[in-house]
């Protein structure tokens, strides 16, 4: 049943990624029309607007959430593809551990980056 | 009955031959077979064995699409040799090979033991909490016709292995359980007499279970009995997820009737006519 658990979360992660990427597309590509989450005049991707979003706790949490979910979804999918190559059980175990380490490493790195940018944005806002 | 004058055509059979004791690899051998209308591939193979090459080996039994023994790859399509007329699928040539995704014992005989082992693993029988219900039955299980409909089509499976041969996932992952065992798991899971779904979920929800299915749908396309394994697998996946999330409806297996008159009588049944003898 462990694989059922992973699969269920894999599917749920796909749905959440769709929602979060939909939000991303709305902000990035309709900014000129809607001005959502882009208080400064100009492009959504301008430095001022980016720093404003990075300073919002909602966006920092969303970035970390999207990172974690996308990593799980992508790496579990990669693991599934690799497992279909008829690997030996020991190799399957090694692949799982390797992907887990890679995923956790990238998640920690990405989280640190999101938190650091959040702090920088807040510092800039204060100064 | 008047004799019909059937026109004879020469069809070239391209047979995959392989004897593991003498051959290093399978090879193709060609035979010219006179074919008349209505002649099946199985009859063509009999002609070759009787007139051209007695060493040709294949497996068959019932000759009427019931036993599932003569599954073969005919013009690249896994199906039953006894159920396929030569002139329906061949122009001037017909290729005949053993079912892919299985080891070959000899010539056209696949080794189905891997499929049988996987089938056995999913407990393809009615499981009850109380073994005595099966071992020493003292009543009839009560099942409605619509409950029978839920799994009836899956009971038509004859375990010929055609779906396993057509499955692209099984072609790369030999540990994958495959369409036939997973369909049979679904067949028993939805049977209201059964109480073994939790035990089967351990197998069907494993790393090489139902979730490896890519839904190519080839299993359903090639099934000579019209079973739809792809549909069964999708239902199986859904039930596995619902079971994990504890959202599936928990139903007790159906009760037993211990004697006549215990079931609900149908309304408006006319009385039996009076005895005449």
Which CATH architecture of the largest domain in chain B is right?
Orthogonal Bundle
Class of secondary structure makeup of chain A: mainly alpha
Instruction: Specify the overall morphology of chain B.
Output: globular
Helix/strand-derived class of chain B? alpha+beta
CATH topological fold name of the largest domain in chain B:
Fumarate Reductase Iron-sulfur Protein, Chain B, domain 2
Count of domain modules of chain A: 1
CATH H level, superfamily name of the largest domain in chain B: Alpha-helical ferredoxin
Distance between the termini of chain A: 53 Å
Tell me the count of domains of chain B.
2
Which CATH class of the largest domain in chain B is shown? Mainly Alpha
Rg for CA atoms of chain B: 23 Å
- Major sheet of chain B, described briefly? 5 strands, mixed
Describe the protein:
The complex is a heterodimer of chains A (127) and B (277). By secondary structure, chain A is an all-alpha fold. Chain A has one domain (2-126): Fumarate reductase/succinate dehydrogenase, transmembrane subunit (3 helical TM bundles of succinate and fumarate reductases, Up-down Bundle), CATH 1.20.1300.10. Chain A has helices spanning 2-29, 31-34, 47-54, 57-83, 89-126. In chain A, helix 4 packs antiparallel against helix 5. The N and C termini of chain A lie far apart (53 Å). The model of chain A has no long low-confidence stretch (mean pLDDT 88). Chain B folds into two domains: 9-111, Ubiquitin-like (UB roll) (Roll), CATH 3.10.20.30; 113-254, Orthogonal Bundle (Fumarate Reductase Iron-sulfur Protein, Chain B, domain 2), CATH 1.10.1060. In chain B, 30% of the residues lie in helices and 15% in strands. Chain B has eleven helices and nine strands. Chain B has helices at 41-52, 86-89, 113-121, 132-135, 145-149, 162-166, 168-172, 179-189, 197-204, 218-222, 229-244; strands at residues 9-17, 27-35, 71-74, 77-80, 93-97, 103-106, 109-111, 140-141, 256-257. A five-stranded mixed sheet of chain B has the order 2-1-5-3-4. Chain B has a two-stranded antiparallel ribbon with strand order 6-7. A two-stranded antiparallel ribbon of chain B has the order 8-9. In chain B, strand 3 and strand 4 (77-80) form a beta hairpin. In chain B, helix 3 (113-121) runs parallel beside helix 8 (179-189). The longest helix of chain B is centred in the C-terminal third of the chain and has 16 residues, at 229-244. The mean pLDDT of chain B is 92. Chain A binds chain B through residues 1-5, 7-8, 11, 80, 83-86, 92, and chain B through 169, 172-176, 201-202, 205-209, 211-212, 237, 240-241, 243-245.
């Amino acid at each position: 049943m462990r694989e059922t658990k992973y699969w269920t979360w894999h599917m749920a992660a796909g749905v959440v990624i769709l929602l979060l990427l939909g939000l991303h597309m709305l902000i990035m590509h309709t900014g000129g029309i809607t001005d959502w989450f882009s208080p400064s005049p100009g492009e959504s991707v301008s430095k001022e607007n980016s720093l404003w979003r990075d300073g919002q706790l909602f966006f920092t949490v969303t970035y970390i959430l999207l990172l974690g979910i996308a990593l799980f979804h992508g790496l579990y999918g990669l693991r599934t593809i690799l497992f279909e190559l008829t690997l030996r059980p020991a190799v399957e175990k090694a692949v799982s551990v390797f992907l887990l380490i890679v995923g956790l490493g990238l998640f920690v790195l990405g989280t640190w980056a999101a938190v650091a940018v959040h702090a920088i944005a807040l510092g800039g806002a204060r100064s | 009955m008047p004799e019909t004058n059937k026109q004879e055509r020469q069809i070239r059979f391209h047979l995959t031959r392989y004897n593991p004791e003498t051959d290093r690899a399978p090879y193709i051998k060609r035979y010219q077979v006179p074919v008349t209308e209505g002649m099946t591939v199985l009859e063509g193979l009999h002609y070759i064995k009787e007139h051209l090459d007695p060493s040709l080996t294949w497996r068959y039994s019932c000759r009427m699409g019931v036993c599932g023994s003569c599954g073969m790859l005919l013009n690249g399509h896994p199906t039953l040799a006894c159920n396929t007329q030569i002139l329906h699928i061949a122009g001037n040539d017909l290729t005949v090979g053993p079912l892919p995704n299985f080891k070959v014992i000899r010539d056209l005989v696949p080794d189905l033991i891997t499929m049988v082992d996987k089938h056995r693993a999913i407990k393809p029988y009615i499981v009850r909490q109380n073994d005595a219900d099966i071992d020493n039955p003292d009543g009839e299980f009560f099942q409605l016709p619509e409950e029978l409909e839920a799994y009836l089509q899956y009971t038509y499976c004859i375990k010929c292995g055609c779906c396993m041969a057509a499955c692209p996932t099984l072609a790369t992952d030999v540990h994958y359980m495959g369409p036939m065992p997973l369909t049979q798991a679904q067949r028993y899971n939805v049977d209201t007499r059964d109480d073994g779904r939790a035990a089967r979920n351990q197998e069907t929800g494993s790393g090489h279970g139902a979730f490896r299915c890519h839904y190519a749908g080839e299993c359903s396309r090639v099934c000579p009995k019209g079973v739809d394994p792809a549909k069964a697998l999708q239902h199986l996946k859904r039930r596995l997820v619902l079971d994990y999330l504890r959202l599936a409806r928990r139903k007790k297996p159906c009760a037993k009737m211990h004697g006549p008159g215990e079931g609900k009588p149908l309304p408006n049944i006319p009385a039996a006519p009076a005895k005449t003898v």
